[in-house]
TrEMBL record:
InterPro entries assigned to the protein according to its UniProt record, in alphabetical order: BTB/POZ_dom, SKP1/BTB/POZ_sf
Domain BTB: 17-84
PROSITE patterns in the cross-refs: BTB
Signal peptide limits: none
Region (Disordered): 175-197
Record Gene3D superfamilies: Potassium Channel Kv1.1, Chain A
Protein name: BTB domain-containing protein
Length: 308
């Protein structure tokens, strides 16, 4: 009996009396969680389950997920929530739900091609793929970057790096593990909540990206632009410090070219005295500069290229 061992337990939700297959997965090194599910549903969706059921002869109604696949019970539960329509994948699904399903549906785990493609699509939709308008995701950036690497999702890679550099103090795995660096400002230990650290290669890319951004954007930010009209050029000379430079200094705008350029575009320059033609021309130039920064980020994210 499954319930006889203290190290084996039934899942509280996904144990159906009319289920036809038992799936066993390790929750920790000492505990195994069992699910009683409907074979037809899993067989249709999962190539892994198909393979296991087709190869088993003595216990065709039971599937043990090997530890080496790295399947987490949390992820398996998320997958079942989707398959049984309790919490299906959708545009409103939280990142944690999409990430869990992306992992477990991958060819390296339970291999559900259709589900994996859907999870991938929803994952991509969560992150910006272009320079304007650029909206930073609120959290999960380091975990998202790891998923981008694992499942080769290049379309959102650049935006995630940019968000990490401009919205967080990116830390390496060594920094996370160093107790001196993990203490807070009062000298007491920091939060014990799990944190996703960046591997050294990603830390180097982030540093290279930050250096590239600062080197490129600093002269643009701190130099009032010229115009074909002397009167409009004088407006920039008079107002650039108060309207652009000071806000940028206050908000670390030198590290945030996409957002800073968008803010500059939104200033009512006509009210400041620029003619309509110059307003139109400069906004087009700032939009083009956003696109140029976005393109240059490919180079800045390649540290070995920026060193030459």
């Amino acid at each position: 009996m499954i319930t006889e061992s203290q190290n084996v337990r039934q899942h509280p939700t996904y144990w159906f009396d009319d289920g036809s297959i038992i799936v066993r997965s390790h929750n920790t090194s000492h505990e195994e969680v069992c699910f009683k599910l409907h074979e037809g549903l899993l067989r249709r969706q999962s190539r892994f389950v198909q393979k296991m059921l087709n190869s088993e002869t003595n216990a065709a109604s039971e599937v043990l997920i090997p530890r080496e696949l790295g399947v987490q019970v949390h992820d398996l539960t998320a997958l079942l929530e989707h398959l049984y329509h309790d919490t299906p994948l959708s545009a409103e699904a939280p990142f944690s739900h999409v990430a869990a399903i992306l992992r477990i549906s991958s060819p390296h785990q339970l291999d559900l091609p259709g589900v994996h493609m859907s999870a991938r699509t929803y994952m991509v939709a969560m992150f910006p793929q272009g320079p304007h308008p650029f909206a930073h995701p609120s959290s999960n950036l380091e975990e998202a970057l790891a998923l981008v690497h694992s499942y080769q999702i290049p379309s959102i890679r650049k935006g995630i790096y940019y968000s990490i550099v401009t919205t967080s103090e990116f830390e390496s795995e060594a920094d996370i593990l160093d107790p001196e660096k993990s203490n807070n400002t009062n000298g007491s230990p920091g939060s014990l909540e799990p944190r996703h650290a960046l591997p050294p290669a990603d830390v180097e890319r982030c540093r290279s990206l930050m250096n590239g951004i600062v080197e490129h954007f600093t002269p643009i930010l701190f130099t009032p632009p010229a115009t074909p009209h002397m009167a409009c050029t004088d407006v920039f000379a008079d107002r650039w410090m108060s309207l652009v430079i000071q806000p940028a200094i206050s908000n670390s705008g030198v590290y945030k070219p996409l957002e800073m350029l968008e803010q500059i575009k939104q200033i009512d320059w006509a009210a400041e005295g620029l003619c309509a033609a110059c307003v139109r021309e400069k906004r087009e130039e700032w939009t083009q500069e956003q696109e140029d920064v976005w393109k240059k980020m490919d180079l800045w994210l390649t540290p070995e290229c920026t060193k030459h």
